[in-house]
Write a structure and sequence with these properties.
Elements (H helix, E strand, L loop, with lengths): L2 E3 L2 H13 L4 E6 L5 H13 L2 E6 L9 H6 L4 H10 L4 E3 L3 H4 L18 H4 L3 H16 L3 E5 L3 H13 L5 E5 L19 H6 L2 H14 L1
Parallel strand pairs: 1-4, 2-3, 2-5, 3-4, 5-6
Helix pairs in contact: 7-8
Length: 216
């Protein structure tokens, strides 16, 4: 059964027990509303670690739009059932006050890679990502961390963060998992309207055409 832990102190105690036994801990950071893409990360963590932690924390620091934060899907009971089926050892699901206690005043920023592309349209987004990932790595004390290649820019930000700060964790990128029509699986897909959902796979098709043209 997957153990649910909500406090950093309780998690530290659990991880400390594992580490004293020489176990390697893997972590999969998520914001919940889990799908097969997330579960593929949990499977990769299970294959490459002795113990697996999946975190669920809807991080307010990486949302530019308060309405987007409010509407982000939250399905913890369903998520827990999925994690138990994957034999995940711990679900770490802290509240905002556990991650950002009163008076919290620190932001982590990764210059350069955070600024173009998505960073142009979501100023400060990757600062929020870098800050929460730094905290989660410290809380979980994981030796390996698993991220999807779907969020390519985020993966580059996290890899640079770990490299620059000499964090003792290996960041592992895992392949994008797609729907049968090619749309990358995402928790946000549930918010697409029917017409938007019909059009969305066109991006993947266009990328395939472009890749084929480059190869030839």
């Amino acid at each position: 059964m997957t153990e649910v832990i909500r406090s950093a102190g309780a998690l530290r105690d659990r991880v400390g027990t594992w580490k004293r036994s020489g176990m390697l801990v893997g972590v999969v950071p998520t914001m919940g509303a889990l799908h097969d893409g997330h579960l593929s990360l949990a499977r990769a963590a299970r294959a490459q670690s002795d113990r697996v932690i999946v975190t669920i924390f809807v991080n307010p620091m990486q949302f530019n739009n308060p309405e987007d934060l409010t509407k982000y899907p939250r399905t913890e009971a369903q998520d827990l059932a999925l994690l138990e089926a994957e034999k995940v050892d711990v679900l770490f699901a802290p509240g905002p006050e556990e991650v950002y206690p009163a008076g919290f005043a620190t932001r982590v920023s990764v210059a350069g890679i955070s600024e173009p592309m998505e960073g142009t349209f979501r100023p400060g987004h990757f600062d929020g990502v870098a800050t929460v990932v730094t905290k989660l790595f410290e809380m979980t004390q994981a030796g390996r961390a698993f991220f999807g290649e779907k969020d390519w820019q985020q993966l580059q930000v996290v890899q640079r963060l770990v490299r620059d700060l000499n964090m003792p964790v290996r960041v592992i990128g895992c392949p994008t998992i797609r729907e049968p029509d090619g749309l990358a699986m995402s928790s946000r897909n549930v918010r697409l309207t029917a017409p938007e959902r019909d059009v969305a796979p066109a991006l993947h098709r266009a990328m395939q055409v472009a890749a084929a043209a480059i190869r030839t």
